[in-house]
Design a protein that fits this description.
The chain is of the alpha/beta class. The chain has one domain: Vaccinia Virus protein VP39 (Rossmann fold, 3-Layer(aba) Sandwich).
Length: about 230
Amino acid sequence: MDRITGHSFIPGLLPERAIILDLGANQGTFSKTMSERHGHTCHSVEANPEVWKRITPTPLVKTYNLAVAEHDGPVHLRISGNSESSSIFPLTSEPSAPVVEVEGLTLASLIKRLKLPRIDLLKVDVEGAEVGLFRACGDDLLKTVPQIAVEFHELIGLTDRDEMTSLFRRMSGLGFAVLKMSFSHHADMLFLNTTLTGVSRARVELLRHVDRNVALLGRLLQRYRLR
């Protein structure tokens, strides 16, 4: 198990030259790390135009100023003073946040636009738009992705808890192990496609109860050492 910018995934399940779709790339740290550390190709999608400009494109990191949404068409993005917090939903802490219009695409339309032959790892951190993103995806598309690392935003009120729970049930029914890698809320979720990856039920239970707790303990110890 590895964790980059708060997103957990299993690097050993990725092919040698993986294709990674990074939705909500922010300044590109996740993509930069994955490309430099493992040599994977990363498609970095960031909706905030000013933050998108800070992503450094490389031969392995492709960048796109787009919003992934529930429908194709323009979306109105509220620009937060925090580069990680701009959202298509009202920001309660910043009611007067400026708004910009950005092209929005569903995940299916984005994959078609980018001409991606496959996705080996999908990372989703889209400030409340995650439930709508999945709602717009057909089952057949989701079942082609081996690993999906998602940050949900129910803690700050951008993600509806009931819709989130319903999505977890849906993903489980599609053959994904729904793994919560964060402490108490759902900021670090991994949907693991057990059919595509061949991960056994026993291994899933180890990931859920052993790997997760070891990782959490490691993070707690690191925080303690930094004090």
